[in-house]
Each structure stands twice: as C-alpha cells, then as structure tokens.
Amino acid sequence: MSALEVRTDLAAYRAAVAELAPLVRLGRGADAIRVVEGRGAWWERLVDAAAFVVDEPDPAPAEVHARVAAIGVPVAVVRRRLRPDIVADAGAEPLAPRHIVVDAWGGRTDAAALLRDALGWARVLAGGPLSVVDRADTAAATTLALRGADGIGASVTLAIGGGVGGALVASALGPRRLEVRVDSASPLAEVAFDDENGRRIRPARRESPERLALRRVFDVVAEGAVLSDLQELSADDAVISPSS
Hints:
The protein is 28% helix and 32% strand. The protein has helices at residues 11-20, 62-69, 84-90, 111-126, 209-223, 229-240; strands spanning 4-7, 24-26, 33-37, 51-55, 75-78, 99-107, 131-137, 141-147, 153-161, 166-173, 177-183, 190-195, 198-201. Strand 1, helix 1 (11-20) and strand 2 (24-26) form a beta-alpha-beta unit. The protein is globular, with a radius of gyration of 18 Å.
C-alpha cells in the first residue's frame, strides 16, 4: 500500500515520520493520521482525519470520553509514563501479585495526569480494573486505596512538589516481585523481576514515544490491529476523579 500521511507540526513527530519512511510521510489530507496535543480541550481537535495520535492528554470527564469513543476512527494515546511496550515488558513473566504499590512524585502542574498514570500502572499490574476503597487528599499528596479482582489490594500515592514532569515506582508484590521505574527526566524505563533465582532486568526500550505511536497507528490502519488506548484512558480518568 502507499505511504500513510501524517499531519503534524511537532518536531519530534516530524522526526519520527522521517524514521518510518517509506511507511509514512508528511501530509495534510483528510485521510491523514493527525497528531493532536493533549493540553486543554484536546477532544475538540479530533476532526478531519482517518486516525489520531493524542499526545499526553489532560484528564477528561466521563461525558467527554463517551463522545470521543463514538468518533469511529483509531486513536493512539501517548502516555510517556505508561508506554505500551514497557507494559508488555512488565507482563513478560507471570506474577500472581498479592498487593500493588505505586509511589509517584512530581510538580503541581502535571499532578492529575501523573496520578492517572500511577493508577494506570496499578491497573496493569493488578491485571484488571480497580475500584476505590478510600482516598485522602492534602495540599502535598493524594493517596488512593484500591481493590481489584481476586482480593488484590493496591495503594497509589502521589507526592506533589515543585517543578514539572514526574516519576513513579510501581511494585507488584507476591511470589515474584516486579518493579517498574519511570522518570519523565529520562527516556529509559526500568523493568526488573526478583525471585529466588535473583534479579532480571529487561532490556531498555530505546524507541521514541512518537515513533512508537505512529507505528502503532500504522499497524491499525494498514493491518487491522486493535487499539485499547481510549478505553484504558477513560477507565483511569474515571478512577482518579474525586467523585469516583
């Protein structure tokens, strides 16, 4: 098939297009993959494209997610602290966790999205949806106590300080321990498994998040792969909402 067009003015995505040639090329047609920045009302920019990449979307209410789900075209969501390839690495060995602990810290500006990504890691490591048992909010921190299927418990803590960006450590505790470390200041995440045989660290993923996102959308448009990004984003936004 001919190359898919990508519509973007963001330098990192234009570089990713060059790396993925000849599968994709820059263009502005109605059949293009459009890259949308996630700040503000990002859902209002999901128009006039065959597929979308939403880069670091701000949290949105349930009614917005319902509207976005009905647009009927593929949407890849870029969450740099919750990359799908790192998620796949975390699932490389069976875990059977008893408890999940996620500690996150970052600036106030990005606090809601960081809390959502921390919750997303709790969901991933628990193997399914989580419900809120209790929540405590202060000016400096948010703590969530959560429950998953089969009696799995989880705790998510976000400490809020100065600066921007954020980092998190997610641990699954059970017969085998898994630890995931993600830092916005570093392009590389660490995924490590510990058991009686010692520690095993997965090879670092070096593909840029922009290239990964475009490649995933290409797989959907060209080969019929399925994206669950929107459903996962909606589920995580619903849990971090104070009204949940």
